[in-house]
Amino acid sequence: FDLYFVSSNDHKYLEAKNILETFGIKLGFLKSDLEEIQSNSLDDVALRKAKDAFFKFKKPVIIEDDGLFIKSLGGFPGPYSSYVFKTIGNDGILNLLRNNRQAKFVSIITYCDKTILQSFDAKLDGIISKSQKGKGWGYDPIFVPKNSRKTFAEMNEKNKLSHRYKALKKFSNWYLHK
Ligand code: ITT
Ligand code: NA
């Protein structure tokens, strides 16, 4: 492989691999738990993760940092999405919400090699469903993207419209012409 995805999360890798395949890019996997700095900025977390990943493996890498931002909760869990999922989980989130259910998913893809450090971000607006629907990983059973009636977990076309798809599309345009 010319390019590797460094992450502890198999689901993220499999989706990224499938998405990049559609752009003609083959993506290897280096499964690794990168230490995440505590920061209110997803960008800072992503830059740091990418530098650590390159330093560790000395190969061209991309990493991804995601966050689910819920409007009525002031953007919570945002940069703490991973921790919040592991602690209160989807039921915990559902218990915090009332009428305003607006949310967005943000993805930052950061590329790092010997000379380049470059980020690509994208967001996808949506709402948090009233209950968990469908079988999926992470927040998929509670996130309903804009213009859809299904949660990510219930749909087949997630990889054609997700926050991950949008950020990887930007990355591909750059990577293939770099
Ligand atoms: P890394 O090792 O790559 O950091 P992670 O699972 O910790 O893996 P993030 O910090 O980027 O990944 O993700 C924040 C949280 O958001 C995490 O709990 C994920 O399960 C969840 N998440 C990210 N993308 C998602 C998606 O497409 N669908 C559902 N949940 C998602
Ligand atoms: Na993480």
TrEMBL record:
A GO biological-process term: nucleoside triphosphate catabolic process
Family annotation (Pfam families): Ham1p_like
Endpoints of the signal sequence: none
Highest rank taxon of the organism: Archaea
Gene Ontology molecular function, alphabetical: nucleoside triphosphate diphosphatase activity
Keywords assigned: Hydrolase
A GO cellular-component term linked to this record: cytoplasm
Similarity comment: family membership: Belongs to the HAM1 NTPase family.
Name of protein: Non-canonical purine NTP pyrophosphatase, RdgB/HAM1 family
Species, as recorded: Nitrosopumilus ureiphilus
Gene field: rdgB
